[in-house]
Amino acid sequence: MAAVEIHGYAIVSDDDRIADAEGRMPDVLRNDADWAYFQSELDRCALVVLGRLGHEANPNPKQRLRLVVSSSSSGLEQRNDGWWWNPAVLPWSEASRLALPQGGRVAVPGGRLVFDLFLEIGYTAFHLARAHGTRLPGGVPVFSGCLQGQTAESVLAGSRLRAGPRRVLDPAGPVSLTVWQAERETRRSSWS
């Protein structure tokens, strides 16, 4: 099977939220430097995996190949707007083999249930940006574990990912970025 790398991408508030209480990304999480970084990363990916709501809310002007996680799929279906996948019916190993036969880099920009799903499958890396000085009470957390009081960092560490150096993307934001990398044996298992 061709090698597949799985990269998660999220910008979170200080309380580890990716959306407000209505499920929308608020302006406090929108940052030009983070957006430019994210778009350049997407340009390096062969496939973008996201939930149905994210797919519907975000146009695809660059026509990037998408795989939409949805229970409305009967397994894996190719539709006009990309692949639609139901992980309850077809495992990732089969879905990725069919949607990405040559292998390559996969971007996972969420939402929460998709982030949780790929915690189980195994990330090669998770690019965690943080908008410092922001809070979204009642908002949607990046991982379900954050609902039980875990931080995004502790969830990633518990999934055998190690933090790289923190980098400032925007000192005025302020927004920082930490790329969490999988340990070697975890990385191998994510390809199967």
From TrEMBL:
UniProt source species: Microvirga aerophila
InterPro entries named among the record's database cross-references: DHFR-like_dom_sf (IPR024072)
Protein name: Dihydrofolate reductase
Superkingdom, taxonomy of origin: Bacteria
SUPFAM superfamilies: Dihydrofolate reductase-like
